[in-house]
Amino acid sequence: AAERPPDLPPSSSQFLRRQQVLQLYRKILRAIRQVPAEADRQYLKDWTREEFRRNKDATEEDAIRMMITQGNMQLQELQRTLKLAKS
């Protein structure tokens, strides 16, 4: 897929992918709020922001799909860890 010129509106698949990425970002930040230690919370927040920022210019559909999958797996791992910590 060729890169689109910046003056063109995003295609529907790009729009949906962007929505998925933003939704994942919000879910991760929400989960991080439950981390009990302030230092750990701040570290995870900074790390998350940096990862998303570093990949914000990605345009390759397969690479973006893979990053979303990895992000969801990391979110699930964080949620599992938080659940274990509470029990």
Automatic annotation (TrEMBL):
GO terms for cellular component: mitochondrion. Involved in efficient integration of the N-module into mitochondrial respiratory chain complex I. It comes from Oceanites oceanicus. This is LYR motif-containing protein 2. CDD domains: Complex1_LYR_LYRM2. Belongs to the complex I LYR family. Coiled coil: none annotated. Residues 19-77 form the Complex 1 LYR protein domain. The keyword Transferase does not apply. Its main location: mitochondrion. Keywords: Mitochondrion, Transit peptide. It is found in: Mitochondrion.
